[in-house]
């Protein structure tokens, strides 16, 4: 069954929506300065309300490791590194916490994926490249790039996925999981109906193929 991650939890309502439709993972933007960033107290409050079976993903962009370890790691299942974190950074993080580590690749060329695949992480999240933005842009990845590279690690496909393109993308790329943010929002906030529809679309599509 293809795993589903809904990213950018910000409000109590967002948590109620994911508790109802039950994706496998819920993401929180925990580095400062992004439009979906939640502060530490909000994160603690929201995390308490989140169904225990939904895995907690903290998204960080070039965050000092000490901050992750001191304030967040004990509440997270997964640490998603969405900046320019290198092998040395990842090794240090892995030695000091038990979370799964995912590296996001903001892909321009196939070689970007090959380089990330060599990093000491558990999974990759393959996202689109946008100059000046780290993520959550709604911009799509060129799926043809996947035929140019062998990926050894399980990976999430992200970047501009929506109800219209998700079945084609899953068929073409066969990801371990799929990740959504912009397309399940209306006016910048998570939309219950859009979350419901995307989760149902994926689960129905996966069932048809079994
Ligand atoms: O979502 C953000 O605002 C964000 C900011 C900084 C770094 C990463 C961010 N999002 C990471 C994600 O995992 C998003 O879900 C991913 O980029 C896909 O977003 P979208 O294209 O909007 O579906």
UniProtKB/TrEMBL annotation:
One of its GO terms (molecular function) is phosphoribosylanthranilate isomerase activity. It is an enzyme of class 5 (isomerase). Residues 4-200 form the N-(5'phosphoribosyl) anthranilate isomerase (PRAI) domain. Pfam families: PRAI. It comes from the Bacteria. InterPro entries: Aldolase_TIM, PRAI_dom, RibuloseP-bd_barrel, TrpF_fam. CDD domains: PRAI. The keyword Amino-acid biosynthesis applies. Pathway: Amino-acid biosynthesis; L-tryptophan biosynthesis; L-tryptophan from chorismate: step 3/5. The keyword Amino-acid biosynthesis applies. It catalyses: N-(5-phospho-beta-D-ribosyl)anthranilate = 1-(2-carboxyphenylamino)-1-deoxy-D-ribulose 5-phosphate. Its EC number is 5.3.1.24. Keywords: Amino-acid biosynthesis, Aromatic amino acid biosynthesis, Isomerase, Tryptophan biosynthesis. Belongs to the TrpF family. This is N-(5'-phosphoribosyl)anthranilate isomerase.
